[in-house]
Amino acid sequence: MMIAVMGAAGRVGSQVADLLLREGASIRVLEHRRPLATLRQRGAEVMIGTALDDEALLALFTGASAALVLLPEDLADPQFVANRSRMSRAIASALREARVPYVVALSSVGADRADTAGPPAGLWEFERHLFGLDETNALALRSAFYMDNLLANLPLIQMQRINGSAVRGDLRFPMVATRDVAQEAAGRLIRRDFAGHQVKLLLGPEDVSMEEATSLIGSLLGLPDLPYIQFPPARVKDALRAAGMSDEVASLLVGMQLALNQGRPFTGIHRTVESTTPTRLVEFLRDALAVGRA
Length: 294
Ligand SMILES: NC(=O)c1ccc[n+]([C@@H]2O[C@H](COP(=O)([O-])OP(=O)(O)OC[C@H]3O[C@@H](n4cnc5c(N)ncnc54)[C@H](OP(=O)(O)O)[C@@H]3O)[C@@H](O)[C@H]2O)c1
Prior knowledge:
The protein has eleven helices and twelve strands. By secondary structure, it is of the alpha/beta class. The strands form three sheets. Strands 3-2-1-4-5-6-10 form a seven-stranded parallel beta sheet, sandwiched between helices. It has a three-stranded mixed beta sheet with strand order 7-9-11. A two-stranded parallel sheet has the order 8-12.
């Protein structure tokens, strides 16, 4: 019984691979750019390739009893949308050909609408392809904003002593730790306790605003007065491009931040016992920032 894992160098996938190995599962991972030598040493079978290559995907999924799938985000890709659409189709068709019986997909709040802003629009298409697989039990984990995204602003915070984005500072929205997403994904891949095509929301334990998040980051970094500034969209886009993102991706991410200000995609999304995950932002930041300083 082997479980195939996409994205094993990434934030969620690496933690899923680790949890599965700890549980004694056999895993096969897809090495893309970052080497997966540590997983190989721990017994994982490592295949090399890209999610744009049908044969690499088929090799990854053949013989798997279950698979973790995701739509990789290459933020430097000038054709981000078109390539993610290609990957969506390639992943679904390889799963079909390999007849993988159980699939857990990393998706996002907002993936229920084709017109959702930013990268989740690609996840709408991804889910549609996965839910079109008649012989596959598929569970889409629709996560809120990953807390881990906040760490991308650490260089700005450390160099300029400010935090900011185009998101309104006082707007509260759900944030989830990738460790909780990975815990759910690994558990479901092992238990395979889902049937047909299912969706599960993962919303973290609380809604948090960027001002609150900034104040927590500031106090943990010894910068108690760290301000959060709502930057004009054009300035955010320039900063994202300067950080190496393609023009297309920078526009998508700014569009997503502006949509958040209008209440999308979280309007009508309510936290329940089922969708609540344990890690609070303060706990996540304590661990993440302690590691960062070590
Ligand atoms: N960010 C959010 O707030 C959020 C919220 C909800 C859902 N999501 C979804 O969650 C998914 C996983 O997030 P994450 O943070 O774990 O991602 P991540 O840290 O960016 O990791 C991406 C993984 O995909 C691999 N990869 C990149 N391009 C690839 C390609 N062309 N072919 C095969 N593999 C490739 C990367 O490997 P290399 O590094 O070796 O290239 C890495 O292992 C995202 O793709 C997104 O769809 C994100």
